[in-house]
Amino acid sequence: MASPLDPIKRSYKSTEQRQSAIIEAVVHLCAEQDPSTLTTARIASEVGLSQGALFKHFPNKNSLWESVAEWVSGQLTERVFSVAGQHERADEALEAMFLAHIGFIVRHPGIPRLMLGELQKPGNGAAKRIVRETLADYRQKVIKLLNLGIEQQRIAAAIDTEAAAVLYLGAIQGLVVQGMIGGDIRSLEQAAPRIFRLFSASFKEIPDAPQA
């Protein structure tokens, strides 16, 4: 005999799935247009809902953008940060993260526009805070791995880890911008290993010159 709670559970699951579909639609649409011009009517149309139905899942646009920012943060943690744990050597972990991040962007090209759009907004809304905190956590993770690499003697002891972390993130951002300019985001996966090799050359130990 079915439990009287079963319909409620099915309804909740359906709502959760619909919310996920709406969030993914936003990420997809951000690849096609400026996020600041994206309307709830356009988002609702993308998932086959009326605006009224959309607002049943998200009471306003700010709450939707907050959920999208949380999704992006969670995806970065799951698909990018987690790969570092699969490598004992810090330099290999940094490379794996770099390549995973580029792969993530290739699959979701709207994410850079979305994150940049949030950072450019005035004030300090919830979505903007989530994006800033995610980037700050990312930077700290890179610094932690750089320090681990120094301990493992895989990275030069004299390296400026703060500057290296900025360069690491800047290399990813630069690659993404070049892909957007060239209109070929998919090509980034071929370019990424070469760019990382240039970055990693800057933190390798330089052997002492032979004595005369």
Automatic annotation (TrEMBL):
Residues 39-58 bind DNA. This is TetR family transcriptional regulator. It comes from Marinobacter zhanjiangensis. The keyword Transcription applies. Residues 16-76 form the HTH tetR-type domain. The keyword Transcription applies. Keywords: DNA-binding, Transcription, Transcription regulation. It holds the Pfam family TetR_N.
